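#lab-general

N.A. 3:47 PM
ok so I finally got the sequence cleaned up, no stray characters, all 335 residues accounted for. can someone with queue access submit it? mine expired

B.Y. 3:52 PM
send it over

N.A. 3:53 PM
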Amino acid sequence: MSAIPYLSPNDLDDLQMRDSFWPALLGVLCVAVAGGVLGDLVWFQGGRKYGDKTLKTICKLSLSRDTCVKKTERFFGRWGVRILLVAKFIPGLSLVSVPLAGAMGVKLRSFIAHDGGGVALWGAVGLTVGVIFAAQLEMVFAMISQLGRQAVVVLAVLLAIYVTYRWWRRRALMATLEKARISVDELYALMNDEPLPVIFDIRSPEKRMLDPAAIPGSLFADERDLAKIIENYDKSRKVVIYCSCPNEVSAAWMAKTMRNAGFRDVVPLTGGLDAWRLAGFDVATLTEFGELAATTPEEVAEMAAMCPWPVKSAAVSSAGSASLHEAGYPHGDRA
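B.Y. 4:20 PM
back already:
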């Protein structure tokens, strides 16, 4: 004879709590996703409307403002809008990736889908950790409650230690960089003399898409390929490097490394392209994909003589846009 199952009042209470627990948890997750996406939409629209200005403003809020934008641009260049799925888990990346998506022209529905997925994943991980370690978290909160104001002091001290550590790292980075600089006026004078200096534009391709202009005669380069640059260029030539980083960090690091490798005269350009443009000097026009553009046969011939890579005219560039999207270009989901 089989036993008749019996549920005590306590068992019934437990079952009722379990039945209401998961829907409540799902509700918390949905609220978190809605709030996260709505908040990110503000920065996304700011990036779409103001472009590079929004990125510079946000970067000033970062403890790694010298490198935060360029790292995010490279991540975005490799993974496109899919980077939003994991951006919340990477410090600094989530701060810049949302307005960068707007500045890069990602479609709104694509942004909402990927950002919503990223927020949902981030929230689900947090809630899962909370459920698994609920008892331990209750102990921590109980200790904080007992400490009272002392807990606030402890948290403030820990935050101060972290900020100090990041400040010290930044100071150590700045100490390793090239101190010498060249102004845009000095560079302009050099470009009207012989021999011409070698000018490296080490902005990321994504940055050149956001700001489709360059100093005439610039060579696009990547400081991560520095070994090839050192091998292929005359070490006796004057070299000028510019980037879009605050304090010319990437350009100064590259200049210092090239000088250590035997180059005699390598200097970063103070202010980069922004300073060149503010001084009223002409800039070379780029296509929407960050490549050199020329609008007349004379410009094509002139730029071809100055630059060692193929120069596209505006007509060719516009005709070739579709093929880049069809080939799986990482920003193929642009508006």
